[in-house]
Amino acid sequence: MPRYKVTIARMGTSNIFLRSFLEELGFEPLLPPPITQETLSLGSRYTPEFACLPLKVNLGNYLQTLETQDPDLIFMAGGIGPCRFGLYGEVQKEILRSLGYDLPFIVIEPPKKHFTEVIQNFTRFLGGKFWRNLPRAIRICWCKAKVTDVLDKMTLSLAPHLSVEWRKELWRKRDEFLIAIDQTGKTGRLKAILAEAEEVFASFPQEPRADVFRVMVVGEIYTVLEPAVNFQVERRLSLMGIEVTRTIYISEWIWQQIILNFLRIDWQKSLREEAKPYLSRFIGGHGLETVAYTVRAARRHYDGVVQLAPLGCMPEVAAMSIIGQVSKERQIPVLSLLMDEHTAEAGALTRIEAFVDLIQNRKARTSSGLGSRARS
Amino acid sequence: MKEMFIGIDVGSVSTNLALLDLEGQVVQTVYLRTGGRPISTVQLGLKRLRETMGSSSLPKASATPLQSEDDRGQTTESLEEQKTTEGYGFSRSSEEIRIAGVATTGSARRLIGLMVGADLVKNEITTHAVAALHYQPDAQTIIEIGGQDSKLIIVRDGIVVDFAMNTVCAAGTGSFLDQQAARLGMEIEEFGNLALTAKNPVTIAGRCAVFAESDMIHKQQMGHPLSDIAAGLCEALVRNFLSNVGKGKEIKPTVVFQGGVAANPGIKRAFEKVLGYSLVTPEYFGVMGAVGAALLARNQYLTTKKSSNFRGWQLCTEDITTVGQTCDGCSNHCELVVLKRGGQVLAYLDDRCGKWSDLVTETAGEAI
């Protein structure tokens, strides 16, 4: 059987483990260049205006790959349920076909419903070696996803305890370790990289800080994970000395969506309970999670919540008005940033900076007893 | 020695400077059109500040800030003679003045912060709130409408608890009103007063600037008097502001109305009609961002007593330019801005990874 060339769209650090996964399975992975303004304009040119941002960027990714390379097929994660993303596999296929690229798609959909279909799709291109290679592919894919997420968690939790200069160094090192993770093909080497990162990070001089401001980042998965579309909000907050708690990690998402859902384990129970006073049902995408995590952030005395979502994302727009209520009732500042191809970076940065001022001044006032309101 | 503080607000349409004394009193303000040239406009603005300071008695600032739009480009004249005394001294001043702090705000805050050696670089939402609360400590809502931005800041118990900015449309901001006044062949000052004389304001679709304009034209062709159309436009823009920017926010009195558009009595009255109570317009409504920045520079100085990074008045006459440059270091292809004095690089801006902007950290640091 020939070695099929397969391309993917980018989302945060997911290209690292997806590349290994496809490689181990027996494909030749072709990666699109990093997302730039050009990707975005290319994608928006051929998509409906009111389609949401992830579709536009994904299509931009495919088109940029197709400009210079010749993939045989496209691999993407899909969805089912009320979010429009479930439809995007088909929409992308149709748009590419209308542009003269007739490529097959392998859409990985939650195995709760479409498990056999996914397998058939793979065996169609890989034949028997799919089953032979699968254990190794899953192993490296899972390890890489886990290690990149652990690295990010370490970075985010350490940053607020460092000086400005060391914070920059921390993020520089994090990027270097990401490249190292990307480049290795051995699962064993990953552990060593993580150990090295731990050692390097531990050597950074920490400053004792009386108070650390904590912000929870909630919202739609793509805009939360992809720094190229969210104006690097996580890194910026972290460089300002804020402790960022990201609520979506890709390894956790895979675990929940593929393993727990397959085993029919209800991992969402605690979230549903937390969201209950405000929202009692699944509304597609990460809408329920957004509400639940905002309640959790208030309960755990976070200083603020940043919601990230594509403009016109139905689940997040619904969640946005609900978390406005949570914000009022539970006294937690919320900043909602909606993104599309027209969003100006300057405006977003002004908002992020003003939000940080807001939470800092608020805390200073509350703790000095000047404010009449106490946080519950 | 008198210690003073400079706030510089470089916005899309106007560049404002404010000079404050140690007590936080406004000594002088300057209002200029940015005209797409932030650097030379700030140079001109600083020169004006310096000139007024040079006169033996410092004039009390007037409510109408210094207007000057006509003399851009002659930033280098007449400053030479004043440069006789080195440093921050003033040749003609009876008392010596020392600039103890400089802060920048507005959309060009980073660039100008690096250029002047700012001690603080602050976003305009915070500076506007600081200034409004300085003059109106019991404010619960701040409405700021400038050239292209409009902001709503919600304050409770003297602290900012929420804010919003216009995201999709600039209808209702200064630039749009300017355009419409120009199209009707009148000064923007006249436009607001005309709206006040309206007997029966017409309904205008204010959702989008372009459609508002076509609706206005339509109403004119139908024969409605100009005053009714002007008032109708003011009401449409206020509706637009309240339903877009103010969506879901609780607007409570006291409401402070500031920014260039606060000079427009038509808009002010339209707000009052909808809200049902009067708005407070502070004395320095047009330069509140700059005043807020200067107040923050003063606060920082009072708590840290650190001497200022201000690069001195000579920067009014220096040859400061920016050059665009594309970085080929990675596939991001960042479009860098290089800030230069003469041939010397002062700073790099706008790189994603920070490898360029970290090169020159002379004036940067915590402030930027």
Describe this structure in words.
The complex is a heterodimer of chains A (376) and B (368). Chain A has 376 residues and is α/β, with parallel strands linked by helices. In chain A, 58% of the residues lie in helices and 10% in strands. Chain A has 3 domains: 5-127, Rossmann fold (3-Layer(aba) Sandwich); 141-208; 211-375, Rossmann fold. Chain B contains 10 helices and 13 strands.
Short description:
The complex is a heterodimer of chains A (376) and B (368). Chain A is an alpha/beta fold.
List keywords for this structure.
heterodimer; A: 376 residues; alpha/beta; Rossmann fold; 3 domains; four-stranded parallel β-sheet; 8 strands; 10% strand; B: 368 residues; Nucleotidyltransferase, domain 5; 2 domains; four-stranded mixed β-sheet; disordered C terminus
Query: How many structural domains are formed by the residues of chain B?
Result: 2
User: Distance between the terminal alpha carbons of chain B, to the nearest Å?
Assistant: 28 Å
Shape of chain A: globular
Unreliable sequence segments of chain B? 56-94, 362-368
Largest interface: A-B, 30 and 28 residues
Sheet with the most strands, sense and barrel status of chain A: 4 strands, parallel
**Order of neighbouring strands in the sheet with most strands of chain B:** 4-3-2-1-5-6
CATH superfamily of the largest domain in chain B: ATPase, nucleotide binding domain
